[in-house]
Design a protein that fits this description.
homodimer; 413 residues; Molybdenum Cofactor Biosythetic Enzyme, Chain A; 3 domains; 5-stranded mixed beta sheet; 42% helix
């Protein structure tokens, strides 16, 4: 069984509002085993709505529309639906009661415009709206369902999960479709594809693999379909076990987990703390760590030392090191990490120093040259990277790779 | 002339990734006077791509595709396009050179998979990709253009604005449509609308105003259309002069300029420096400042003091202040700002301390309670804010309002 989503609204077509409804609905449907095969955004125009509906019923079993159900003149979805199903409008007493109740609760007066919202196409089953005045509508035709819902997320969301999805599941038998996302770091997409070729070749026919690259990271999404949910889940877990053999160090998280979150969990479990000393990341490393709620449980702080004088005076980096080796060097970044760990009184530290660009590069140290160090009370490891020319990406990658270096260190002690 | 956008990618259909590309592209097209009449998301499937293309060329003059151009097996857009235009594949020397250059810059080795990205359908003009290996492709057929671009925003965005839109405008004639964005801070949308009512009422008929609220800020977009570009531009400037009379302190930038950029320019002109001391913003304030290229010319660094011990030991905040008034108080944030200014040897400083949430609130100081201070050698100004329950927003607003407090201070001395 396949679904299709049609989001109606001019504001979605001029870039003023991002269509978050579409992806949220697709996710809810997927969690119920229903595959969305298309999401379409169209304007508040009767002809566009009719054309999209005609195309959609050719392809899909379930068609969900949102938007265009308000009381004002630009809301024309209801008329379009009456046209599509070639029927008149009737007043629904149930909906009118709901509207009256909502208004009396809020001590508002009902206008003629509001009362008109109780008019629905004759051939639909109205779906009650607990958070607004526009009812949803459920139509059936030739074994297919067409469902229309309000576009306001606050009204649409509970209507979809509490009423519409149960109605669909009652009507159709759905199989299981399960996705698992695997987060990897440090290997580019094409190299990863080579490393995984033989594993990918042997994936069972009901499984699909997708590569989702991000700066410095690649997410792998493994999808599997089948009759029974448990069996499919087991199948996915088996494949992930095999995958771990190919990528023992590169996989750091699954599904919604992030690198700062995973690192935070590791530190909390060990009851240990971390501090940072940042030059080229300029506070972004601290920001990633502190974007995790509860990070004050393991994170002490950062010294963002953007000038050499601050590296010397506040972080205690030896002036001779800075003169002889430069701010972007193994020697300086090691000193930054070691001094930060001691000054903050932390168990671990991460330090960054690099030329983020666009200026500041030299033939010896071009833009993108970066040093990252991670220190514990036992040792300090420093690594050299050569990133690209893009400032924002260089900052982002440096912070991620710094977090990953600490993750790797924690795994090995 | 009308456009249509087709975003290809399974990840967009399972709710894993929100289709921000679609709305961003629609906005860029609109800014160039091109109307988007449909945005469609389809899976990485050849049949879906072909069907969508067939439908789109019936309706629209320009069809833009994104996604499915990577080197891995799930990327099949190129094959589908060769099928649609019924042509074979050829190797583009230009594209191969670009890939070689990118790889040698990064000292990577080119794999067979990478080299395959230089293969393009015979009937297309390849569009060079300055930020990745997958070229864009420009096709023409029966007076219509079909353009295929990578789905990675970092690669697609400059390709669209710098290459594709100029190619479209070269092919079709469009009238002058000019937009100017005015950035305001500190006044909520509804209040702003009240303040601007009489100005808005008197706007000429060819001008349109849109309110684009963001956390803590509202952008106003003024659009004007006409025959001659220069006359329209002059008209917009006249209206902005009037607008400045209504919002003398709230407007801080135009078009692509940001608050950190504007503040950086002011400091560079005065040859003065700033340092920061951050608790609740956790490095985000430093990150905003250092995301501006050249910020090392006026920014010295930040002490991210996430724990009270660090506030005391490294920032020199008096322990009695912390005990008697708490970390989130006027007294503490003033001490943080004053000490940071002196320790870093800066002309100015910004300090933040607040309860970002979700935990840590008390009846006296609920989540969202925030203090921000700005110090110079003459004085220190501290302000209290009560933001909401959303951690990320609280961090973001605190950093922005801190930057704005320094901007206002600089304007008055």
């Amino acid at each position: 069984m396949t679904a299709e989503i049609i989001n109606i609204g001019d504001e979605l077509l001029i870039g003023q509002v991002i269509n978050t409804n579409g992806s949220w609905m697709a996710e809810q449907l997927r969690l119920s085993g229903i595959d969305t095969q298309r999401i379409t955004i169209i304007p508040d125009e009767k002809e566009s709505i009719l054309l999209s509906l005609r195309e959609a019923v050719e392809r899909s079993d379930v068609i969900m529309l949102t938007g265009g159900l308000g009381p004002t003149r630009d809301d024309i979805t209801k008329d379009a639906l009456a046209g599509f199903f070639n029927c008149g409008m009737v007043e629904s007493n149930e909906v009118l009661d709901d509207i009256r109740r909502l208004f009396s609760q809020n001590r508002w007066t009902i206008s003629a415009l509001n009362a008109r919202q109780a008019l629905v196409p004759e051939s639909c089953i109205p779906i009650r709206n607990n958070n607004g005045t526009a009812p949803g509508m459920w139509f059936e035709k030739d074994g297919k369902c067409i469902v229309s819902m309000p576009g306001v997320p606050f009204e649409m969301k509970p209507m979809l999960t509490d009423q519409v999805i149960p109605m669909i599941l009652g009507k159709y038998k759905t199989g299981a479709l399960i996705h698992k996302t695997i987060h990897t770091i440090g290997v580019p997409e094409s190299k990863l594809a080579e490393m995984l070729e033989s594993w990918e070749d042997r994936l069972p026919g009901n499984m699909k693999l997708a590569y989702l690259p991000q700066p410095g990271m690649v997410r792998l999404r493994l999808s599997a379909s089948g009759i029974e949910r448990e069996a499919v889940e087991k199948q996915i877990e088996e494949q992930i076990k095999l995958l771990l053999g190919y990528l023992p160090d590169q996989i750091f998280a699954y599904n919604e987990d992030t690198l700062p979150l995973i690192l935070g969990r590791m530190l909390l479990e060990r009851k240990q703390t971390v501090a940072t000393a940042e030059s080229c990341t300029g506070g972004y490393l601290a920001h990633l760590i502190t974007s995790v709620p509860g990070s004050s449980g393991y994170y002490l702080g950062s010294m963002v030392a953007y000038s050499n004088r601050v590296k010397k005076n506040l972080l205690g980096v030896d002036g001779h090191l800075l003169e002889n080796f430069g701010a972007v060097s193994r020697e300086t970044v090691v000193s930054m990490a070691e001094n930060a760990r001691i000054k903050f009184g932390a168990d671990f530290s991460i330090a960054t120093s690099g030329i983020a660009g666009p200026d500041g590069g030299t033939p010896d140290k071009p833009v993108g040259t970066t040093w990252i160090a991670v220190a514990s009370d036992k040792a300090c490891v420093a690594k050299h990277f050569l990133f690209g020319n893009h400032r924002e990406r260089n900052i982002h990658k440096t912070a991620l790779f710094g977090l990953n270096m600490l993750r790797r260190l924690l795994l090995n002690i």
